[in-house]
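Recap from last week: sequence in, structure out.
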Amino acid sequence: MAIEDTFVMVKPDGVTRGLVGEVISRFESKSLTLAKMRMLTIDDEMARRHYAEHSERSFFGELIEFITSGPVVAMEWTGESAVSVARTLIGATNPAEAAPGTIRGDLGLLTTHNIVHGSDSVESSTRELEIYFG
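Predicted structure tokens:
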């Protein structure tokens, strides 16, 4: 196993619902270390960079509209196999299919409003951390 960095973002619905502390607590409980954190409202250009791989998808406009609708909390987490650990903690994209005990399984409401984003690979993490933390 290797020490990795991963990107996690509490989306506008998670911030609005006051779940930032809950999300942070779950990551800390898995022995990941919070290395960086910032709250911001994403502009259209940053949102398009973040979701570039989905630009040809029919739901791209909805993604951009939602992620720019309010403040988010962007974070860098570090630890053993941080990417896969974070993905397991977050759960399936659709909260109805996410396992109990995961963030989305316990707290998510809709696929489009599923509380949190997490990088799906080390490569994605590197790209996303660059977008949010330079």
